[in-house]
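Dear support,

I submitted the protein below through the web form. The confirmation email said the job was done, but the results page showed an empty box. After a refresh the structure appeared. I'm attaching both so you can tell me whether what I see now is the final result or a partial one.
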Amino acid sequence: MAKTNIAIGVDPGNVWKHSILSGYRYQLDKQEAATDKYLKAFERATMTTQYIKGDRITGGDKKDLYDRINDLEPLRVKADAEVRESVRIRTETIKMIDSVKPVKYRLLLNLLYLNGMDYKEAGNKIGIGRGEKMGALHNQALELVAIDR
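What the results page shows now:
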């Protein structure tokens, strides 16, 4: 997914709608970071499995494999919470985008906010000619978004 800054051409009156719709992309970044952190920690904790005997009592403060995995529980819980939040925000974002009636505008918003495309990619995908200004279309689409306050 391309990192884009589609806010550059957004009219001041539409900035808050853009910010709300952009929340999904932000949440996805948080989710990916939390998941990556958990997976890397899990990999570090389990990469020495050939040296750790799971059921063997060794005494002292040494941790066995199960202790190491149990120590990762807070990271797993945080990653799961971020995934649930992403799903919730995606559902709300889809509802807002689905409130736009002309299909051309709805598709444009879907490509920009849910698929993370930039103007050029989105324009190519939906067949918008070079003569049409994507910034203007984006603003027109944002004006049609219904957001419950």
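Response: this is the final, complete result; the empty box was a page-load delay. The two ends are 30 Å apart (CA to CA).
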